[in-house]
Amino acid sequence: MRIGQGFDVHALVLGRPLILGGVLIPNEKGLEGHSDADVLIHALIDALLGACAMGDIGQYFPDTDSQWQGVDSKVMLATVYKMVHEAGYKVVNVDSTVIAERPKLAPYIPDMCEMLSSLLNVSTNRVNVKAKTSERLGMVGREECIVAMVSVLLSPL
Ligand code: MG
């Protein structure tokens, strides 16, 4: 068995879509980034790479490479999932926390779990997404950014 953890943060800005876990969430602000800035999928990618001791997201999808400009993070996750598979591992389970002051994410969590489980080729009861606020404290509390943290467990194929 292999365990991995991932962390990511992206700034919240006007004029960008808010995409979390591959799901478009209606909101006046969205996440800034080179790709679609899906902070949850980015943290998941880092957790998967970490579990396989294969480095981090920046090594494979550098923000200096125009190939990844505006890319759908689901495409990045599919690429990394293939690497994990080729390394001889499958996903046992995923647990994650998204920390955002607004909007309320609870209504979108089932869709996120469904999206992530299909991308990871596991049943939905193996993927968990939790949403927290930052109790109006700090950079998350000031609605300057959204943070995501993910743990994954892998087992041999
Ligand atoms: Mg990121």
Structure report:
The protein is an alpha+beta fold and 157 residues long. The protein is 29% helix and 32% strand. The protein is built from 5 helices and 7 strands; from the N terminus they run E-E-E-E-H-H-H-E-H-E-H-E. It has helices at residues 39-51, 57-60, 73-86, 109-119, 138-141, and strands at 2-14, 18-20, 23-25, 29-31, 89-99, 127-132, 145-156. The strands form 2 sheets. Strands 4-1-7-5-6 form a 5-stranded mixed β-sheet. Strands 2-3 form a two-stranded antiparallel sheet. Helix 1 (39-51) runs parallel beside helix 3 (73-86). The relative contact order is 0.26. The model has no long low-confidence stretch (mean pLDDT 97). The structure holds magnesium ion (MG). Magnesium ion binds next to strand 1 and helix 1. Residues 8, 10, 33, 39, 42 line the site of magnesium ion.
Bound molecules: magnesium ion
Distance between the termini: 10 Å
* Largest beta-sheet characterization: 5 strands, mixed
Percent range of helical residues? 25-40%
Q: Specify the overall morphology.
A: globular
Q: What is the H/E string?
A: EEEEHHHEHEHE
Low-confidence stretches: none
Strand content: 25-35%
The helix tally amounts to 5
- Number-wise, the strands total 7
Quote the average pLDDT: 97
Question: In which order are the strands of the major sheet placed?
Answer: 4-1-7-5-6
Rg on CA atoms, Å: 15 Å
